Amino acid sequence: MKLLPRPRFVGRDRRARRGGPRGLSLTFLTLFAAVFSANAQPTVIGSKKFTESYVLGEIAKRTLNDAGISAEHRQGMGGTIILWQALRGNQIDAYPEYTGTIAQEILKTDRKLSLKEIREALEKFEVRATEPLGFNNTYALVMRRSEAERLGLRTISNLRNHPELKIGLTHEFLDRQDGWQPLRARYALPQQNVIGIDHALGYAALKNGSIDVKDAYSTDAKIAEYDLVTLEDDLQFFPRYDAVFLYRLSMTAPTITALRKLEGTLDETRMIRLNAEAERTKNYARAANLYFQGGTGSTADAGESFWHKLTRWTLRHLELAGFSLLLAVIVGVPLGIIASRGGPTGQAILGFASVVQTIPSLALLALLVPLPFFGISVRTAIAALFLYGLLPIVRNTASGLQDIPRALRDSAIALGLSPMTRLWQIYLPMASRSILAGIKTSAVINIGTATLAALIGAGGLGEPILSGLNLNDHATILQGAIPAALLALLVQWGFDLLDRVLIPKGLRL
Amino acid sequence: MSALVQLVDVSKRYEDAPALHSTNLAIERGKTTVLIGPSGCGKSTLLRLIIGLITPDSGTVAFDGSQITPANIDTLRRRIGYVIQEGGLFPHLTARANVLLMARYLGKSDEEMRTRLLELCELTRLSDNLLSRYPIELSGGQRQRVSLMRALMLSPELLLLDEPLGALDPLVRASLQKELKEIFARLRQTALFVTHDLAEAAYFGDEIVLMNEGHIVQQGSLADLRENPVNDFVREFINSQRALVFT
Fold first, then answer.
1. Which residue in A84, A475, B121, B134 could disulfide with A506, CB within 3.0 to 4.6 Å?
2. Do the Cβ atoms of A407 and B86 come within 8 Å?
3. Rounded to whole angstroms, how far apart are CA atoms A272 and A134?
4. What is the pTM of this model?
5. Nearest Cβ partner of B135 from A413, A415, A506?
6. By the 8 A CB rule, do A442 and B130 touch?
7. CB of B166 within 8 Å of any CB in chain A?
8. What does the DSSP 8-state code read for residue A299?
């Protein structure tokens, strides 16, 4: 069901071809396909980047495991569109979603749809929804209790008289069909001071008074923890957000049966308790255990040791950064050689590499996710890192070659050496210092940028950083940030050593 | 015997400025021909046309009877040695590797290369223990000796020298001039030597070719140029360096 290595890349005769860049790229693609399609069997559950979704994902994984079905959980992959694309692109098999979100964001309708209508509409995507899990997690606007009482605010309509209030909203809510713009129109809200802020950071901002109102989910554990009040949706603006699981029709019947055991088992009180447990313990698996207490569920999965996790994150991080760097070198050096000759082609290459560099990394990831070959995967992360790694290598290769004095180029030509020999024996060694400096820059950039791979579920040291951000927990953030910084230093140091081996002695005197 | 190199109606423009107007020149075997003239007169352009670093806009360059084309240029280059100011040695290679570069490329045997290397050390009076040094570890004079060795490695029929001694201090320069002249005589080397120094031209040149603004102005022995200058430029050029040459 998942992507298998493509047979046409593994033909021995083609790989065996000597030398040329074609042979290299084929070898590379083979490797690529082999490395990232190894995890072929398990059912993959996705989750969005907020606590409740993580917890539901864990619960689903455990339920499937308990039914003897191999399953893995890709935590916090992103927002609605990313998860939906991943589901349709067959990168995940199921994920928790809310009926209101399905109608507004996925089916793009302003009407409030019944579950039956939703199911009919999903049929053509070969996706189905379970019955509601049992709770309605609607959007809500929340405030500090003290502030709400001081101003006498109970409903969203009451906000009309307080244009001075500062509002901080998640980026998703700002852009949603059922989000801020129509809400503001419906209630005729006057507030001008509206900023976009991460969900978890928003709570911290609300607590310290940087903002006064923010969006929340009605089952959010933070509402109780921070002593917040929910403003009543007196004009019934928000649709129902009954939690369901979306799953692919291609899932096996036993898997579907197992997943559907969750239907009707979670009411709002219970969900709030699980969310609170997740945030208190910083451990989603443990919160999921709470769901199974009294049932037959095991508690095996809860305690992966810190060092084990750190090793896993670091290895994945190195895999992401290393593989993308290798690719950037294989592609970047030849491009740099072409660019060093100048002319329109050279300009175009350098221009392209520079433009890629200016795209914010988050945006680049988002642009790659909808493409057929990529989606929510390690591939996408590597492709993005590869693109980022290109510019320093291309530019340094080109400038290193261009800096070779004309007299020395002339000497090489006048000797009668062939163009290939000149390149390999004279020009590239002479430019080696500059080329290596470019590769070093790319490596360090990649180590840093690879932390963003966690956003699309590709893992690495970004994973603890993201969950830490999500939980507003600095210790967890540092678990990723410190090793990433150390790794960058180590790579820098390693390349300094490599300089001594790879740069010819005559250039180092 | 025919000339080794024959330029017929050769011209070359860079961007918009003509570097060499339609020019004819024959380089005779066994002699040292010196190209001289002020900076930008076209003498280096002429040299670069012969080794194929640039191609003429019009006219033909023939080497040993065959016209130089992109197809045969690499083969012909192996029959031509090329020495430039500062030597043009590759900094990432030792002196030895610089000298042997082309011989290795052509797959010469170790024995053959070793023998030739010793001959060249003897010829250029370079101590063979300097061969394992990198160019940056050598003095200017030593670098030019290594560069000469590299140019002579394949026993070329023609040696092109583009101001080879221009960057050396006067004492080293004087002794290298003397040695170079001895080497040319010993090898009966056909050489084309570019300089802007009349004293050097007079010292080396069997034939002096005086150039100005992309033209060959006059060609002959120093005595010809001095006694029968064809125009005021020749007279002034000779006179301006007279003190150096004739005292």
1. B134
2. yes
3. 12
4. 0.66
5. A506
6. no
7. no
8. -
Angle between helical axes of A343-358 and A378-402 (0-180°, round to 10): 140
A39 pLDDT band, cuts 50/70/90, is very low
User: What residues have CB less than 8 Å from A421, skipping those under 6 apart?
Assistant: B105
Q: Which two tokens stand for residue A410?
A: 């002339």
Residues 6+ apart with CB under 8 A from A188: A160
Tell me whether B48 touches chain A (CB under 8 Å): yes
What do you get for the CA distance between the two ends of chain B, in Å?
37
A408 to chain B: closest CA residue? B88
Q: How many residues does chain A have?
A: 509
Phi, psi of B139 (to 5 degrees): -80, 170
CB B121 within 8 A of CB A454: no
Q: Tell me how far apart the 2 most distant CA atoms of chain A are, in Å.
A: 90
Residues of A within 8 A of B48 (CB-CB) are 410
Nearby residues of B242 by Cβ (< 8 Å), 6 or more positions away = none
Q: Which residues contact A208 (CB under 8 A, 6 or more apart)?
A: none
pLDDT digits (tens, 9 = 90+) for A129-159: 999 998 888 888 999 999 999 999 999 999 9
Read off the pLDDT of residues A165-177 as tens digits, 9 standing for 90 and up: 999 888 778 777 7
Q: What is the pLDDT of residue A509?
A: 80
Asked whether the beta carbons of residue A407 and residue B88 sit closer than 8 angstroms, the reply is yes
Provide ipTM, 2 decimals: 0.91
Mean pLDDT of chain B: 91
Instruction: Give me the pLDDT at residue A364, please.
Output: 84
Give the CA-trace dihedral at B19, B16, A344, B53, to 10 degrees.
-10
Walk across the sheet containing A43-48 and list its strands: A71-78, A43-48, A94-98, A243-248, A127-129
The enclosing H or E element of A204 equals helix A199-207
Per-residue pLDDT tens digits for A341-351: 988 999 999 99
Give the residue among A383, A498, A493, A491 at the shortest CA–CA distance from A443. Answer: A491
**C-alpha–C-alpha distance, residues A275 and B66, integer Å:** 89
Structure tokens that stand for A425 in this block: 């024996």
Q: What is the distance in angstroms between the CA of the first residue and the CA of the last residue of chain A?
A: 58
Judged on CB neighbours under 10 Å (0-12, 13-18, 19+), A225 is middle
Rounded Cα–Cα distance for residues B186 and A56 (Å)? 93
Q: Specify the pLDDT at position A375.
A: 67
Q: Which of A407, A416, A505 sits opposite B102 (nearest CB)?
A: A416
DSSP annotation of B147: H
Per-residue pLDDT tens for B46-66?
A: 999 999 999 999 999 999 999
Token pair 């060609």 in the structure block, residue? B219
Query: Token pair 């379970």 is at which residue?
Result: A130
Return the residue in B68, B75, B80, B90 with the most chain A beta carbons within 10 A, the one to mutate for interface testing. B90
Rounded to whole angstroms, how far apart are CA atoms B158 and B187? 11
Q: Decide if B94 and A506 are in contact by the 8 Å CB cutoff.
A: yes
| pLDDT on residue A283 | 81
Residue A199 confidence class, pLDDT cut points 50, 70, 90: confident
User: Measured between CB atoms, which of A411, A418, A432 is closest to B88?
Assistant: A411
| Averaged pLDDT for residues A397-416 | 94
Q: What is the pLDDT of residue A21?
A: 40
Rounded distance, CA A99 to CA A245, Å? Answer: 10
* Nearest Cα residue in chain B from A404: B90
Q: Read off the amino acid at residue A203.
A: Y
